[in-house]
Amino acid sequence: MSAPVKENPVNKYLRTERMPSIWCPGCGIGTTVNCFTRALDASGFDLDKVAIVSGIGCTGRVAGYLKLDSFHTTHGRAIPFATGLQLANPDLKVVVYSGDGDLTAIGGNHLVHAARRNADMLVVCVNNFTYGMTGGQVTPTTFRPAIASTTPYGAYEETFNLPRLADSCGAVYVARWTAYHVRQLAKSMGEALNKKGFRFIEIIAPCPTLYLRRNKLGDGLDEMKFYREKSVIKHGADTREVNLDFRQEITVGKFVDRERPTLEEAMEKQMTKTLGSKYVPYQSPGKKPAWS
Amino acid sequence: MSNANSTGVLSGNHYLDGDHACAEGAIAGGCRFAAGYPITPSTEVVERIASRFPLVGGRFQQFEDELGASIALLGGVWGGAKAMTVTSGPGFSLMMEHLGYAAITETPCVYIDVQRPGPSTGLPTAPAQGDMMQARFGSHGDFRVIALCPNSPQECFDLTFRAFNLAEEYRVPVLVMLDEVVGHMTEKVVIPTPDKLQVTPRRYTKKKPGEGFKLYEAPAGSLVPEMVKAGDGYRIHVTGLTHDERGYPAMNVPTQEKMQARLMDKLLNNVDQIVSWEEKNLAGAEVVVVSYGITSRVAEKAIQAARDQGVKVGSFRLITAWPFPEKQIKALAGKVKAFVVPELNLGQMALEVERVVGGKTKTVSVPHPGGTVHNPEVITKAILEAVR
Which ipTM did the prediction report? Predict the structure, then answer.
């Protein structure tokens, strides 16, 4: 007789009827989702009030696997969709979950502006240094001289330092972890979920099928060993100092944690100041369910 | 239907331009979230919204581009608001992807396009009607929208108001297609009292979470599913991928066929409830002028001139361009010698008239590259030649 199979404690956060996922063996995205569900579990939030928004790509499929109100939007536009969702229904906690290509290339303009205006959302960026869904093309984070299908002779562009980008645009919370740092990541996600304003977590994650294989870097497990060996935790590090390079040290930790009025707070304050009693504040449709 | 929320309705007589009248029509229609990006000649709509919304409990957000604005409103809708965005040609081009996203996700929403001549930057401050085919076919794949064409500031109010009702009724993007002249001309606009303004509320499901609600399952006898909003406990999934009744991606041909059939039929089976037009002197007409927007007002003078010369000319003004009043034009086709179609483009709706008429009657396009309106004499000449 085999031992009874125990229910995975995170199953209740997942649309298990949609499993197995599309993700490859050794992919880091599922690991980050596991951390996210654990952060949700620890948060004590009413999960009916948590909405998740993704763009397009492998990480863009996260929204479809989480048993939350979930929106799989267009390529690069998860952040403005989330901004509209949150402004129209400020009772929601809104999380954007997408990849490096989606958030920082096609969606880069929205990323910088949402951080600037401190739109109230947590943005989780799974950075696997490639466009996985389309077969491994170069992204704004692909290191020189890594091979991608559109840089067959090696990448040659400067890359984004994402924590610095988010920090300099005004994000109130900025952290970076790898898919190896599951406990720290889950804790960091929980911390970020509990803050207001624009929060940004970068997660370095393996894409074994395209990025690792094409660059002869081993499989997912080899990459976990690499993360363990090369990562250095430096909380509060100056984000100018956390740039990544090909196969070099990975600075991880919480880099930024500050307070700043959110977009909604700034809007309300300015309207109240200028209009006084003439101001009619927005009534959130989230105050009561439509069926009540 | 229910009475409009009186907070937002500026009942009374006003002297407004078309852009401002659109903003008031939206407010009266229940719009409380708007996203925008400045672009001539549509900017006055969002300027009025930005100024009025804080007084009526609305929220406006200017975005970094039209890509952002055109999906932020959809986020607003799923959050529970009635929402719109506003633009002109170049911005309309950027918004096309989200028009398709709104169509496949069945997000009730309103897009206003104040048309200017193109292609590209064209003539930013001048009138055109060059986006009519883009409204119908501009996003990739097959999809259907409703497009309304006001020809006065009064109608800018009336049709923007109606656009919000139609969006809720059929869960489609509704486009209000102005041209620069209608957007910027100032005329008397009468805004009715709230009890005279019947608003279609969002049709939320009565099923509570856990009672078997499916996001894309239309109730019996209908092709339009009921709505929910985020935060109410249904744990919905909304995707731009081909999806089944639960809203889950389903990458197969039968699902694509089923989904697309319903998305088409929910409008095609209701065309009679949607189409509207204005007709004049059609009885016994030899020639019918088919026009819309500002061109319909220019055409009035041309029609009068032709009638003064004894030609029996009627007028058929498109109020809905899409869906096209196919049945009505077809019925006229056997009776008249010609349709004359003046428009501020190089022949767009003329193609649709020609298609519908199917060779039974001559269709005469009276094109204009845009930048100003037609000289009415050009239209008169086309009428006189058509009747020969």
Answer: 0.98
